[in-house]
Amino acid sequence: MSLDRDWDSIRPERGFRAADAGMGILRITLLFGSAAVALALIATPFLDSQTRSLSARDGFGGLDMAATGSIGHRETYTLRRSVLQPQPSSVCIIRSNGRSSGDC
């Protein structure tokens, strides 16, 4: 009987504690999170240089050649939208000479 008491005095906890599992999960999460941050810091400059070389090869020289439409250069106009119009997508266009078009 004294051997059992001696063992209990040396190692009183024999069961599984949920707090130990929580700390283990926290450590694993921190390990993989720091690995992901390190990978992102290393991979970002490499991928940026790869995309720059591709765009330079295309001949654009880093310029975005997107066009949004064609409107006369000297004509000014006002677009008006209102929540009081029958449809939410209704647009009223008022030109500089006072002529209006659309859903006015």
Query: Average pLDDT value?
Result: 76
Q: Taking Cα atoms only, what radius of gyration do you get, to the nearest Å?
A: 35 Å
Helical stretch tally? 2
Secondary-structure element series: HHEEE
Distance from first to last alpha carbon = 98 Å
Strand count, sense and barrel status of the largest sheet are:
3 strands, antiparallel
Strand order of the largest sheet: 1-2-3
**Total beta-strand segments:** 3
Task: Please report which band the strand proportion falls in: under 5%, 5-15%, 15-25%, 25-35%, 35-45% or over 45%.
Answer: 5-15%
Which stretches are low in confidence, meaning pLDDT under 50 for 5 or more residues running? none
Helix content: 40-55%
Structural class by sheet pairing and helices: mainly alpha
Morphology = elongated
Protein name: Transmembrane protein
Organism: Mesorhizobium ciceri
Keywords: Membrane, Transmembrane, Transmembrane helix
